[in-house]
Amino acid sequence: MNLEPGHGRKAANRLADEKSPYLLQHAANPVDWFPWGEEAFRKAREEAKPVFLSIGYATCHWCHVMAHESFEDEEVARALNRSFVSIKVDREERPDVDRVYMAACQAMTRGGGWPLTIFMTPEGKPFFAGTYFPKESRMGVAGFLDLLEKIADLWGRDRRRFEQAGDEIAEALQPRPEAAAAGHASNETAPAKASEQLASSFDPAWGGFGRAPKFPMPHNLTFLLRWYARSGAESAGAMARKTLEAMRRGGIFDQIGFGFHRYSVDAEWRVPHFEKMLYDQALLAIAYTEAYQAFGEDRFGAVAREIFTYVLRDLTSPEGGFYSGEDADSEGEEGRFYVWTPGEVTACVGKEAGGLFCRFHDIREGGNFEAGRSIPRILKDPAEFAQEEGLAEEALRRSLEQAREKLFQAREKRIHPLKDDKVLTSWNGLMIAALAKGAQAFGEPVYRDAAGKAIDFILNKLVKDGRFLLRRYRQGESAYPGFLDDYAFLVWGLIEAYEATFELRFLERAKAFQEAMIDLFWDERGGGFFFSGKQNEALIVQSKDAYDGALPSGNSVAALNLARLGRMLGKPEWEARADRVFQAFAPSIAAYPAGFTQFLNALDFMTGPGREIVIAGDPSREETQRMLRTAQKMFLPGKVLVLRPDGEEGRRLSVLVPYTEALGAVDGRPTAYICENYSCRRPLTDPADLQGALSTYGLT
Fold it and tell me: Torsions phi, psi of 4, nearest 5?
């Protein structure tokens, strides 16, 4: 699929001038599309027409289906162009628009998804909502053409009825202050309650939570790791372990080229929705990295490394930013790029090695998927399989890896799915955080350097006036003032990057963007942060979200950022502000804490015991690096880690972090200072002593 207009025929509408890959996919439609903006709404007001709003994203399978059935169809285009003003929105560029109208869809239909289909007044007030509609009515599902005709007819005969419905829906969407609650009391019981709620929906056979379709939900897993470490609850650790194991073995993981697909359509993680999203890679890499640290098992670390291999190979721009994702479809079929027949495998790697690979990965005659093809997955533990095959486990692993590499090279010659090559600040922030965590856990300079390069890309391309973020970059153009998640996720990445590299500029930038975020998004009346701020377009609703869904909410990440920066920089007022974020959403968290697991990660940090670790010494010395690595590699979610170097850099740090001024090396040796709950222990100069002291706080 070609992203650019003019592929196959001349561009037919205004989307040809856009940079969004999704909008460009529709630039040659016969529909007279407008991008979101005043021009479209002015036309709707002047011509007294309702607005048809379609929201999707470039790698969305059902968006492609509806586009082919309806938006490329001349008959549908005539109906839309005659009676409506049509607007197309990329949800990843304009998450503010998507949030408002997705909330409307959920309120009206109790469901939602993409493509998101909205009909609204020229004032932007929705009166009808849905998702995918086929062109013609079938099997009880309304056809899009019939829907257009009915709405156009009713609008012409009784416009006021639609306007009144739009007013009522817009009013219903307005945020309401949450009733006051005993937030601190609920905080004490919320983690245990969340663990119980997750256990009630846990699948003991296949891992994960709830029924099909199953989503990875990495923050559920990172929460369970923290609760396991804090409470010793074996069930919490077991749920995280089982889910992480099962996902890596399933078809949701790309067994040939690495990286995770979006979600599984079945309970066994067998058949994925094949799109790959940057944010899933980032959040899952964090979960596997923390599992490696918490359990001390190399297999979890290996998965994180595989994710990084995929991202650095396939989702990284030459300039250092990270692309948004890859499509599910190629050659007109969902998943075609990823599936195999036994004949294709053996033709590539040979009969004996190919047969072994097929047996291990469930690639069979007749297929385990569609059209006789199979999605590679792992059904048995390698040790058990090796025993059945009469092989040494190491020989099995070597054979499988050699076959995988050959299959990967063969697959590279296939027609690839579309790559969404826009760079989003928020998702890049998550990937920076993941790589920086990986650099700390594995001592891997490649991850550290990739995180730093991505930060430099954002600072060069997506910062305005030195302190304000922009949302999206593509083909030399940066656009849209940043939203809450752009600031929160990037600050997260900068904090992790500082603790991985100890480059003071990252900590300085984290502080500056955190200050800007407070200025732009803080809700003075109700506490917490709005999703859209002072620089963003005002919509019919100013949303303020806390629920941790496929992505953690901006508020939950912001709460943890404030708490960590407050501790690192010696700013107790930021720790107090983090507590105010909690209080703003306390009733919702208390009612269903399992829906707020990233918030609970922040709560875990704030509950303490807080551990500030300052290591004073020359970073060029091996002894200093040993001290730093000791602290970096352990599972210590409650820590902050600061390097106090000598000389000018140390003086610069003391301006930013005043409490470090008096902390220096003892007798010229690198020295670790550990403070807990505002009380400091004796200085340590031996890495083994530091290891022992920190082991009393963690699992490893």
Answer: -90, 150
Contacts of range 24-28, beta carbons closer than 8 Å, 24 or more positions apart: 25/1, 25/58, 25/64, 25/67, 26/67, 26/71, 26/88
* Of the candidates 630, 631, 634, 660, the residue with the CA atom closest to the CA atom of residue 645: 660
Q: What is the CATH number of domain 186-330+420-607?
A: 1.50.10.10
> Among 442, 113, 659, 462, which residue's Cα sits nearest to residue 434?
442
The mean per-residue pLDDT over the stretch 320-340 comes to: 95
First-to-last alpha carbon distance for the chain, in angstroms, is 48
Count the Cβ atoms, other than its own, within 10 Å of residue 3. Answer: 20
Query: Do the beta carbons of residue 670 and residue 618 sit within 8 Å?
Result: yes
- Tokens read off for 457: 């890309």
- The beta-strand segments (E) located in 165-238 are none
Residue tagged 């404030």 (tokens): 562
Half-sphere exposure (CA, 13 Å, Cβ side) for 337? 27
For 635, which DSSP code? Answer: -
What's this model's pTM, rounded to 2 decimal places?
A: 0.93
Q: Do domains 14-173 and 611-695 have the same CATH topology?
A: yes
Which numeric CATH code is attached to 14-173?
3.40.30.10
Under 8 Å between Cβ of 260 and 279: no
- 283: left (phi > 0), else alpha (psi -120 to 50), else beta? alpha
The residues, any chain, with a CB within 8 Å of residue 696's CB and separated by 6 or more, are none
What is the average pLDDT across 441-460? 98
pLDDT (tens digit, 9 = 90+) per residue, 13-45? Answer: 999 999 999 999 999 999 999 999 999 999 999
Query: Do the strands 126-130 and 116-120 form a parallel or antiparallel pair, or are they unpaired?
Result: antiparallel
Cβ–Cβ under 8 Å, residues 551 and 427? no
CATH class, 611-695 region: alpha beta
Delimit the domains of the chain by residue range: 14-173, 186-330+420-607, 338-413, 611-695
Residue of 514, 515, 532 lying closest to 523 (CA atoms): 532
Calculate the alpha carbon distances from 59 to 115, 276, 594, 673 in Å. Answer: 11, 8, 29, 48
Q: What is the pLDDT of residue 87?
A: 97
